[in-house]
Amino acid sequence: MSQDIENSITQAVLAKAGQGADPRIKQISQALVRHLHAFIREVEPTQAEWKAGIDFLTRTGHMCDQHRQEFILLSDVLGVSMLVDAINHRKDEGATQSTVLGPFYVDAPPEAPLGADIAGSMRGAPLLVQGSVRDAATGQPLANAIVDSWHADESGFYDVQKLESFGGLCGRARFRTDAQGRFHFWTVKPSSYPIPDDGPVGDLLKAQGRHPWRPAHVHFMIFADNHSTLVTHVFEQGDEYLESDVVFGVKHQLIAPLEQHGAGIAPDGRRMTQPFFRLTYDFALAPAQSQQAA
Ligand code: BEZ
Ligand code: FE
Questions:
Q1: Which of 63, 97, 114 is the last residue of a domain?
Q2: Which residue's CA is the nearest one to ligand 1's atom 1?
Q3: Fewer beta carbons below 10 Å: N end or C end of the chain?
Q4: Helices 2-16 and 23-43, interaxial angle, to 10°?
Q5: Ligand nearest the Cα atom of residue 213
Q6: Given this model, what pLDDT does residue 20 score?
Q7: How confident is the model at residue 292 (pLDDT cuts 50, 70, 90)?
Q8: pTM of the predicted model, to two decimals?
């Protein structure tokens, strides 16, 4: 009898899944059943292992609240976020490559003028970030594009992880490019950091013998009229975790040097009494129709 069920259960569920549903729901439901059953047939879990799997997912759900999304973290460390991203950006030829959004973006971040220092109470060596935004197809500069940027400080924490000790939002802001599509701002140099690993995703990483670290980076989300929104980071050249980013987010094109400068007059005219770093990156956005075509 149980041999019969083993042989027939997948077909029986496939016949039911998606009955009466719209075609896309049916496709997704049936693929889910096919792949889940194939996984079980391959792994042949014991009852105790199956319960451990259910417990893991239950703990993952319980870990989620308005500040923490453990399921996204799970998707990130399993490479699923990067796979979904890759599938959705196949046609963005010539555009700057995208990578994971991560959990620390804040909707409608505080606006700041070009040249502002957004470090607030964050600690670290001063960093001048400068760059431009252009159309990937024509190379034309994109004026008035919105550039959102956010990053961790030298302690490896984002403002939203320690709002009380940072005294509010810092190390993040929204800028608008000038008539030549340029932007620049001051902040502090971020360091590499471990993703939140005190929950079930951290347990999974330990069980898999993996570290939780991401290489140092600055996040960008860039919006321009009639262009696909770009979600990306720029990673610090030379970081020890570039080859082993826990969320598989590093792309060669997104690595840039943080040039070291001595005290003196900075490229934007600011008088610096201490050494500082400079990150320069030029972004190219795909025209919106290339995303629609995809
Ligand atoms: C981040 O870079 O902020 C991030 C991305 C994925 C998971 C955790 C953090
Ligand atoms: Fe990050």
A1: 63
A2: 102
A3: N
A4: 160
A5: 1
A6: 79
A7: very low
A8: 0.93
Residue ranges making up the domain that contains 38 = 2-63
Distances (CA, A) of 114 to 14, 144, 177: 56, 11, 8
- pLDDT for 89-123, tens place per residue? 988 889 999 999 999 999 999 999 999 999 999 99
For the segment 30-40, the average pLDDT, to the nearest whole number, is 98
Measured from CB, residues less than 6 Å from any atom of ligand 1 are 73, 76, 100, 102-104, 195, 214, 247
Q: Which of 15, 43, 63 is the last residue of a domain?
A: 63
Given the CA of residue 104, which atom of ligand 1 is nearest to it? Answer: 3
Place of tokens 């996984």: 39
Q: What confidence tier does 81 reach under pLDDT thresholds 50, 70, 90?
A: very high
Helices (H), 191-252: 200-207
